[in-house]
């Protein structure tokens, strides 16, 4: 984002924090309603352009959002939306993407208030691994020619009785509004949940699964390196032969056999 959109996003996030006072149902309702607003904006180009048109005073854009959505959403959601559209955005897409992020944050706040944030984080990670390990499933969920309702039904069947309702809502929104790699989008959601717990995430590929004690030692080592609590998510990848590949943000630590062989090959070349 350019500077204007970063400032607009920051102010919108402040409005969300102010709106989410009360029970966890306020946060859950706000998150779901923001997703519904985004669906409308995705479908109606003229409306989303009008709400982000910097040539029009912010107060006029705020009034337009109230006329369109005021009777359809709660007071908390409308307060967030009014603040967001009144800001000056560098690009129309920045407004819509920020509303998506605010919806996600509201739902994760609801999970936190219910004491289920760690469960949601873990379920999102596992969903990402299931999709990554099943190319046919990923293709079905990524097919832009497939109706959104069909994708929602597929996610619902996949997660029914196995995941928190908030996990299902978040996953449905991601697959019906996919803009890039589905696996990356799910991982980003899992990382966002970890960030709300003031933790960073280590994505680990291991030749064999790690025992609980090994995960704890790895998490402790990474905490010493990064100075913050670390959540370790492990994906078993036999192609590594042995060892681990650890990714924390942009940092990659490759201690796998295949990684060592590749380094040796480059040195010999």
From TrEMBL:
Membrane topology, as annotated: Peripheral membrane protein
InterPro entries annotated for this entry? ATP_synth_OSCP/delta_N_sf, ATPase_OSCP/d_CS, ATPase_OSCP/dsu
Q: Which residues form a coiled coil?
A: none
Q: Which NCBIfam families does the annotation name?
A: ATP_synt_delta (TIGR01145), PRK13430.1 (NF009967)
The organism's superkingdom is given as Bacteria
Instruction: Please verify whether the record's keywords include Ion transport.
Output: yes
Predominant location of this chain?
membrane
- Pfam short name (any one): OSCP
Instruction: List, alphabetically, the Gene3D superfamilies matched.
Output: N-terminal domain of the delta subunit of the F1F0-ATP synthase
**Which species expresses this protein natively?**
Nocardia puris
Report the GO molecular function annotations: proton-transporting ATP synthase activity, rotational mechanism
What the record says about family reads:
Belongs to the ATPase delta chain family.
Q: Where in the cell is it found?
A: Cell membrane; Membrane
This chain's protein is named ATP synthase subunit delta
Record function comment: This protein is part of the stalk that links CF(0) to CF(1). It either transmits conformational changes from CF(0) to CF(1) or is implicated in proton conduction.
Q: Got a GO cellular component term for this one? A: proton-transporting ATP synthase complex
Q: Does the keyword Cell inner membrane apply?
A: no
Could you list this entry's UniProt keywords, alphabetically sorted. Answer: ATP synthesis, Cell membrane, CF(1), Hydrogen ion transport, Ion transport, Membrane, Transport
């Amino acid at each position: 984002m350019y500077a204007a959109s970063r400032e607009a996003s920051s102010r919108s996030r402040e409005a969300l924090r102010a709106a989410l006072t009360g029970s966890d149902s306020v946060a859950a309702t706000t998150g779901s309603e923001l997703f519904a607003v985004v669906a409308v904006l995705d479908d109606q180009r003229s409306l989303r352009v009008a709400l982000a048109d910097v040539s029009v005073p912010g107060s006029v854009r705020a009034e337009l959002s109230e006329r369109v959505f005021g009777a359809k959403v709660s007071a908390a959601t409308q307060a967030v939306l009014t603040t967001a559209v009144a800001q000056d955005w560098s690009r129309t897409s920045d407004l819509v993407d920020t509303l998506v992020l605010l919806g996600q944050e509201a739902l994760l706040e609801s999970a936190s208030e219910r004491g289920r944030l760690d469960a949601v984080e873990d379920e999102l990670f596992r969903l990402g691994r299931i999709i990554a390990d099943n190319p046919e499933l990923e293709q079905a969920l990524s097919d832009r020619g497939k109706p959104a309702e069909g994708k929602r039904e597929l996610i619902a069947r996949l997660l029914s009785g196995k995941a928190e309702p908030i996990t299902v809502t978040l996953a449905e929104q991601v697959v019906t509004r996919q803009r890039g790699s589905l696996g990356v989008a799910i991982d980003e959601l899992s990382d966002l949940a970890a960030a709300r717990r003031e933790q960073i995430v280590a994505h680990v590929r291991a030749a064999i699964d790690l025992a609980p004690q090994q995960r704890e030692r790895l998490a402790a080592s990474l905490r010493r390196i990064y100075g913050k609590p670390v959540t370790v998510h492990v994906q078993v990848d036999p192609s590594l032969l042995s060892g681990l590949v650890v990714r924390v943000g942009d940092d990659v630590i490759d201690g796998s056999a295949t990684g060592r062989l590749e380094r040796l090959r480059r040195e010999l070349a």
